[in-house]
Amino acid sequence: MENLKSLGEPQEFWDYLFQISKIPRCSRKEELIRAFIEDEALKLKFEHQTDQIGNIVVRVPPQTNTESEPLRIVLQSHMDMVCEKNEEIDHDFSKDPLRLNIIDIDDEKWLTAEGTTLGADNAVGMAYQLAIMKKIYSGELNLGPLHLDLLFTVDEERGLSGASKIDRDLVKGEYLINLDSEEDDEFTIGCAGGRVFKVEIKDERVSIEKMKDQITPLKLDVMGLMGGHSGTDIIKNRGNANKILAEIMWKLNKEFTIYLCAINGGNLTNAITREAHAIFYVKKEESKNIKEKIEFYKPFIKSLFEGIESNLIINCEEYQENLNHLIIANDLKDKLLDLFYLMPNGPLSMHPKNPKLVHTSDNFAVIKTKPNSIKIKISTRSLNEYGKEVIYENIITLFNAFNFDMDLTIITDYPSWDPDFSSLLTSKAREIYKELFNQEVNIKAIHAGLECAYFSKYYPNMQMISIGPDIKGGHSPDERLKIGSSKKIWKFLITLIKNLQ
Ligand SMILES: [Zn+2]
Question: H/E element holding 12?
Answer without folding.
Answer: helix 11-20
